[in-house]
Design goal:
- The chain is α+β, with helices and mostly antiparallel strands and 131 residues long.
- The protein folds into 2 domains: 63 residues, Winged helix-like DNA-binding domain superfamily/Winged helix DNA-binding domain (Arc Repressor Mutant, subunit A), CATH 1.10.10; 50 residues, Ferric-uptake regulator, C-terminal dimerisarion domain (Dna Ligase, domain 1, 2-Layer Sandwich), CATH 3.30.1490.
- Helix content is 36%, strand content 20%.
- It contains 5 helices and 5 strands.
- Strand 1 and strand 2 form a beta hairpin.
- Helix 1 crosses helix 2 and helix 2 crosses helix 3.
- The N and C termini lie far apart (59 Å).
Amino acid sequence: MIKKQVKTRNTIQRIKIMKYLKSVKTHPTAEMVYNAVVKEIPSITLATVYRNLHNLANKGKILMFEFNKEYHFDGDTCNHQHCICKKCGKITDVFQEEISKYALSKLRADNFDAKCVTIIFNGFCRKCSGV
């Protein structure tokens, strides 16, 4: 049986969610995205935001990662790393292209051509480590 790929419409809600995610570097939760987007689209619901975020993540248009039982989202999907503080939960982007290039060059997978990699470093931010 051949599975037909369903094309999703690019709705105004999805466009506003993507625009917001591309404009921030804070790795917001769905509730944070909702609070920003509802200002522009008062009729949008939190359920619509959740559905769109999960759909965009499943299609690889955004990154979704879980920390402390809470999902965070990132509109930048390629060639950067994330540092997550194990104490306060702060997520920081790091743009060290050589790390991503190295990881991609070392991948050995048959029948797969990787184009980008998501790397997460867990540890403690400067504030929480007392350094």
